[in-house]
Amino acid sequence: MQKKYSIGTYEFKSKEFFPESIFSKITDIRVSNPGLVEKIAASRKRRPALTTDGKLTILAADHPARMVTRVGDDPVRMGDRYELLGRILRVVTSPEIDGVMGTPDIIEELMIVDHLCQEAGGESFLANKVLLGCMNRGGLAGVSFEMDDRMTAYTASGIKKMRLDGAKIMFRLDVTEPASGWTIEYCSRVINELADLGIPVFIEALAVVKEDGAYKTRKNADDLIKVIGVASGLGYTSAMTWLKIPYCDNYEAVARATTCPILMLGGESKGDPTPTIEEFAKGMKAGPTIRGALVGRNVTFPGNDDPRAVACAINGIVHKGFSAEEAIDYLISKRGTGMDDLTRILK
């Protein structure tokens, strides 16, 4: 790289962007007006189409519902909803990011904060955003039934009722585990339900192997090509199917495994955002089926860096064709900007 990534003494602090006073109001509304979220959803301005240019940058925010809370050496850091929600809001309030994918609790929390902003005279930050509802979270991390990943969050009808823009499901294929087959069947059924309602589906399809008591994703082209073939053929139609696939070497071969659009995923938080940025810059050149990124922990918890700045750097790769070097320059320029986006409205 011509310009190396640098952060110096900078450290993003969620509380400086998202004060606890706003956080506490969410619970107040849950207690006093639990029906408000449906009214908010009913009035939200939606995009006329899923994409504006055929590409998407979406933040993934569904991890705690599957008991995934580890960041680095801290086993429960993502379990602090105040910090997590502040980081999610830091990204989603940026006009550059297409949208967010989450479980009902997180989507509703975002809607409540959006409502508070509008009530205080500000603009809606969820207007024209892509909101995806996560459906199967029943395969809790580390439990004996992990591979039996049932639909325990959104339903197809619930996504329709809340006027979300799409659904996200996941299956992990362990060829030695019968429960993998059950999960694929759950996914096939719900794809048909979503298709009947005209709702796009984003399928995270992974090949995994169990090592030392934990499932590890097999990030190689051969395994990903095989699992893409399974995911592309699920349901009675693939007309509204998008895939969520990790980056790997020989991604050009992965890109040729389907005509369905693919969003790249990031995986576990690395602390340093540059490996993800470099991978995505390569991945976007792999073929016409690669249409963006659906990333979570590498954006919300990028070491000490600013989640919004990292998200905007990835968005620049997706929508503006940035190189990795240009994306890192953009990250540095965006770091720490707009820290009063909420506090100047919600005083």
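Second entry:
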Amino acid sequence: MVMDYDLLVDAIYRAGADPNEWSCVLRLLTGAFHGVCAAMHLGDAASDFSFGITYELDPESSEAYAKHFFAINPLNSPLTRIPAGKAIGDNELVPREIYRKGEFYNDYALRYGLNGSVTGILDSRNGHVSCVGVVTATGTDPHTAEEVSAFQRLMPHLRRAVELNRKFRATKANAEASHGALDQLNFGVVLLGENGVVLRANAIAAALANSANGIRVVQGRLKIANTGAQNRLDYLVGCAVNGVGPRGGPLLIPRAKGKPIFARILPYTGVSYDGVPAVHAIIYLRDPEASPAPAVDHIAMAYGLTSAESRVLRALLNDSDVRAIAENFGVSVATVRNQIARIMEKTGTTKQTQLMRLLFSAHLPLAEP
């Protein structure tokens, strides 16, 4: 499969700032995962079903699905048992031979030329699922394990973008409340106004803005100690604010000690509100030196790890010595090795280095430049 991961991540975070951009995300997902259409559904307690946002989905099929076929879709019940944050192919939910014998496939899927799908669970609570999925055409093969894994890689970004939508919506009701909501995010966010002036930095971004990290706010502007990084920042901010060139992009911010800070600059094209300064661009910041512990919870939820497996995964962050971990937990080395093997099987990794890479990449929403 061919996928421009960086392009997709940029588009996802643009949609996080402006919900109108989700149609672009669905278009890119459809192309990347050889689909014919894509849809996003945000589940709630309402009895009526509706796709929130769609791309190339036949309006007639959407209406028919909402009126009748949603209720008999054999995939719906299994989806409610999939944890939030996980991507899954429909052939993993219901065996293909059983799926093709049902009314849903024969009277709906075949009628509208639809076949398999890969779905990402954005949220799941009280039996109501929020999800995003790409559907393939009749006659095509189901999504491969590699494609589902690629979709999984996008899930942390998709979920955080939806969360950003919720946070930014608060701006309309109460600007101060929205500022507090931004502080609840587990990554840095800097809002830039006209000409790149800093309007607001959430708590994590403010904590990162100090001389030790090589980045500061000086007279209302972001300044980087490294001249090359500063020049690239100025260029990317100018592009994002003015909607020209690459319209933003990734950036590494060097610091005196430790790994560089990852940044991603994107334009903001959302709605402005009375009394709230217009936001023209957003900078997302990721500190790879930050404690990765919260990622264990995300991984455990997304991949269905047991409490014992989560405990071992957390221990691996601090010590790769299996014997030391076993001794600390008072269990045998074989038990720890079996738990690690199950963790890697569930997460689709084959080496501990791959497992650690997955853990750190899931911690915060920015892909490395």
